[in-house]
Amino acid sequence: MSKPIVLRLGDVLFAQKVWDQFEEVAEVVTIDETVSREEFFKLLKDPKCKASQAKVITHTVQSLPNVGKWDKEVADHLPDSVIAVCHNGAGYDQIEVEHFNKRHIQVSNTPKLVNHATADTHTFLVLGALRNYSYGYRNFMAGKWPELGEDAGGPFGHDPEGKVVGILGFGNIGHSIAKRLRPHLFSKIIYYNRKRLPAEEEDGCEWVPLDELLATADVISVSLPLNPATRHFVNAETFKKMKDGVVIVNTARGAVIDERALVDALKSGKVRSAGLDVFEYEPQVTKELMEMPQVLGLPHMGTHTIESRQNMEEFVIANARSAAEKGKVLSIVPELKDEDWVKKL
Ligand SMILES: O=CC(=O)O
To answer: d(Cα 179, Cα 170) in Å, to the nearest integer?
Structure first.
């Protein structure tokens, strides 16, 4: 019997050994992540290219600049043989799931494995933004300490003790963030999800209505996935409802916050400082945001550790293997879980 064909779109950084093991049971066809969208479509239709008979496709964000979003056009170009797209990442906003749903193609992501690294990054940004480290660091790196004196001109920051943290989006990563923030002695950690969690899943945090979170949190931690319902969830109107001098931290997706409104809120002082790992138009960053000393920024490094990336790559292979061998991925994205065709798999 011939081996199922797995199309790998994108580079392997850490999990080559596991890919090699997978190749004992699957025929892996690699397409370089630099392939253009048109070229990718051509390969999918070319009967001489094994990609045209793929059963499973693995996908990384590295292909995004060239192949672009996985939208209706991509879904429509996939051969009928494809049953699953296995994405490497917890966030899968690059894939418009509804179009794959229509074709009964499963989409999987890599939840949970990113929790620790993302929550560590988040904690760094919360403490750094509270303490105004970005001011001092920028001046320090520019060699201005001698001329600017104490702290190289950085204004005094704030201690976490006694402050309220409000987590927007209390999922896996939100829980990991709460765990890491608790030892820093914030007075209270509150959260907002559309649905309140059962008490035993709240980890000592308290659900509050959205407006109450906005009005009472000293630090707002953004941990919502990006989808049509959460795009610009934080916008000019929500900023108005926040405390004056609030600190905003985002390690989820840039577009959950309206970046233009954030710039205005930082300019007016409504937002005192921000810790940002993600940006609405990344890798482009609004110039004004980049230049503000009250912004502690990172170039989307939330999961940038060897351990996390290795775990994620290996889990993509586990998903692909499960799809190739059993017809069903291990971690189907939540939007598809309750679909009848998925339940029958
Ligand atoms: O941004 C990182 C991820 O989605 O895993």
So the answer is: 12
Q: What is the value of pTM for the model shown?
A: 0.94
What pLDDT digit, counting tens, does each position of 269-287 carry? 999 999 999 999 999 999 9
Binding site membership of 254 for ligand 1 (Cβ less than 6 Å): no
| Length in residues, the chain | 345
Angle, CA of 252, 254 and 260, to the nearest 5°: 145
Q: What is the count of structural domains for the chain? A: 2
Q: Among residues of the chain, what percentage have pLDDT more than 70?
A: 100
Mean pLDDT throughout 149-156? 91
ipTM: 0.91
Instruction: Give per-residue pLDDT as tens, 288-309.
Output: 999 999 999 999 999 999 999 9
| Mean pLDDT value across the chain | 96
Give the mean pLDDT of 95-109. Answer: 98
* Any ligand 1 atom below 6 A from CB of 114: yes
Alpha carbon distances (Å) from 271 to 114, 169, 214: 28, 20, 12
CB proximity list for 185: less than 8 A, separation 6 or greater: 160, 161, 162
Which of 282, 314, 335, 339 is catalytic? The answer is 282
Both 229 and 254 in a single domain? yes
- Distances, alpha carbon 162 to alpha carbons 58, 66, 168, in Å: 46, 47, 19
Regarding whether 280 and 183 lie in a shared domain, the answer is yes
Q: Are residues 126 and 260 in the same domain?
A: yes
Q: Among candidates 68, 70, 77, 69, which has minimal Cα distance to 44?
A: 77
Q: What are the DSSP E strand ranges found in 213-277?
A: 219-222, 246-250, 271-276
The yes-or-no answer on residue 99 being catalytic is no
Answer yes or no: do 183 and 330 share one domain.
Answer: no
Task: Say if 302 falls within a structural domain.
Answer: no
The reply to whether 253 belongs to the active site is yes
135 and 279 fall within a common domain: yes
Residue 227, pLDDT score:
94
